[in-house]
Design goal:
Layout (H helix, E strand, L loop, with lengths): L2 H21 L7 H24 L7 H24 L16 H27 L6 H16 L5 E2 L1 H6 L6 E2 L8 H13 L4 H4 L2 H19 L4 H12 L2 H8 L5 H21 L2 H17 L3 H16 L2 H21 L1 E6 L3 E6 L2 E4 L3 E4 L4 H12 L7 H11 L1 H6 L1 H23 L3 H5 L4 H19 L5 H6 L12
Parallel strand pairs: 1-2
Antiparallel strand pairs: 3-4, 4-5, 5-6
Amino acid sequence: MSLALFVAWIVPLAAGCSVWLALNPARVPGWPAAAVGQGCVAGMLLCAAITALSARTDTAHALAHAGPWLTALAIAAAAVAWRRMHGLAPTREPQPAMQPNRWMTALLALALLSLAWRAGIALREILLRPTYPWDAWDAWAVKSKTWVLLGHYVPFVPMQEWLAHPNPDTYTSMAWAYPTTLPWMQVWFASGAGGWIEQLVNLPWFALWVGLLLGHYGQWRALGVARRPALAGMYVLGSLPLINVHVALAGYADLWVATIFGFAVLAWLRWLQTRDATHLGVAAAWAVLLPLLKLEGAIWLLLLASAVIYGLLRRRWRRRVVLGLLLALFAIAIFGHLKIPVPGLGWVEIARNAVDIPGFGRLAFSWHGAALAGILSSMFVQPNWHLLWWLAPCIVAWRWRELITQDALRRVGALLLAAIGFLLFLFVLTDAATWAEHYTAINRLLMHIVPALVTFLMLLLRGVKWRQVFRGTAPAFAARSDP
């Protein structure tokens, strides 16, 4: 590894971890894993933002232009983190009343070893392959590769505009309107690699996978999940086939959206647990990034923001919000259309028979039964998710009393139900049905909410006495206080 490539990796990691610790100085259980995991992802996105601001005229030397700014941010954040952490004693975790089962511990160790083996396979795939075709090649890498090979930024415009006004300083592609956050991140790593070396430019997807697992493990521990169940959950999340595909075939934005949405939900849960406004601010920061990664992220931002805001409202205002939604539906039925602003998308127009979404086009409303069959096949038949979608309703049915006693779990459950409801509406009741019938998008959009779903299931299972469960002596329900 060259010195430049080493710097291209160590500076974003230092900056991201320092910013994370400056915002989360409390040394709660799992804090080192959360700092490294979420800090790694944050650092890569920070380098993308600073590169976009400072290296537009000289992309070949992006590291030299953006590196000093990112280093200064890392030093400043590290100073703030040290000051805030100084004198804070680590939170002591209560010792378990029962010794862990040795056989279960050995089985968990084998599972984690298999996860490490899988990581080696995915890393080898990235280092041996160029960027895979389809979206990874057409939507994301085409922009960053163009900027790196030209040596400077050029805009991408609609094909009609490009044909009508030929200009050597403009380019076009099918995905010209997609966000440029990930392409700018690739410019940073291409500069560190000394040129457009696709295997090195795609390495951030492996780091993203590691950050996804460590970031979730650390936050689960902070939310009260014991060490061994949290490690088991990390294995479940890291072994899901489609997530591994998006690591090995690096270049797609979907794994980024899934990771950031999962991080936002975790920060929201931390706020519900502690009522520390910093966690709510972190959740908002993660959520705002969603439409900057992919256009579909605007929908998840809207749903998450709605869930958070609805939870903040007093009861009488909640009734008014519901009444307002009903009036909006009534207005659509009477006047024929309604325009609403959606961050990251623009003005979305909803009519009686169609919805017009900027960047996606017009989707007509109609029933598509074949799409429903495709969704069910993706979730319950195809080998994309192991048994995740089979186990989820079983766990909810088993631990339903936790939903009654814990308001935080009810809110996350409602958010996930709204997300699944949106996907059903999109694929079953609009022209987007072909994306589910031919399996071109359904699994990728499901993946966006899967880390948050695993978090929901982990918290439902929090506090289960597994040894008693296996012996058949566990109580049917153990009351817990609402965090």
